[in-house]
Design brief:
Layout (H helix, E strand, L loop, with lengths): L1 H19 L5 H7 L22 E4 L4 E3 L7 E7 L6 H15 L2 H5 L1 E7 L7 H9 L6 E4 L2 H10 L4 E5 L5 E5 L3 E4 L8
Helix pairs in contact: 1-3
């Protein structure tokens, strides 16, 4: 229990420091995190039930359900592979976080990218993209209806924005959700 507890706190504190240092999204992070009496940043959301009912396909093409979050500390981020700045920056910081842990602690941590761009982000594309950051990172993609459900269950905003020449980009919330080993939200 003590080992798991200390691993969780090390991950938590490291994540908070990394997220607070993200310069492109610093204003968003300041709005999301608040200064707590414990001298750490974050919102304790224990007892909330983000993600329940989630169903998707992972980067291996296998079915993924909410229950699959159980067993490890999960860091869940919504983004997309063609994101020009915040997504890759966040994934670099998450890979640095995982690399800073000892092997036993790193084994207890799983990072997930849930794509907000299911039209372009296939399981294969997610696998290739995430391998640039850490081959152990998992990607999740769903139908537009599944994405809407996943985003709603995590209170995440996303929006398709047209650009020049008939292309588009995605606007989206840039929060990292922390789920404990029981898949309960803690940050």
């Amino acid at each position: 229990m003590t080992k798991c507890f200390s691993s969780f706190h090390k991950v938590f504190l490291s994540l908070v420091l990394i997220l607070a240092s993200l310069s492109p999204a610093q204003a968003q992070w300041r709005n999301f995190f608040h200064f707590a009496k414990s001298d750490s940043y974050g919102s304790n959301i224990q007892g909330t039930h983000f993600g329940h009912g989630l169903e998707a396909i992972d980067e291996q093409g296998k079915r993924f359900r909410f229950e699959d979050f159980k067993g490890k500390i999960s860091l869940v981020y919504f983004g997309f592979t063609l994101c020009p700045d915040v997504c890759p920056t966040t994934l670099v910081h998450l890979s640095q976080l995982k690399a800073s842990l000892n092997p036993d602690e790193a084994e207890q941590l799983q990072v997930y990218l849930i794509t907000v761009d299911p039209e372009r982000d296939t399981p294969e594309r997610l696998k290739e993209y995430l391998a640039y950051f850490d081959p152990s990172f998992k990607g999740l993609v769903g139908s537009p209806e599944q994405l809407a459900h996943m985003a709603k269950s995590f209170n995440v905003f996303y929006n398709k924005v047209p650009t020049s020449a008939g292309q588009y980009t995605m606007e989206h919330s840039a929060f990292v959700f922390v789920l404990d080993q029981n898949a309960e939200s803690v940050l």
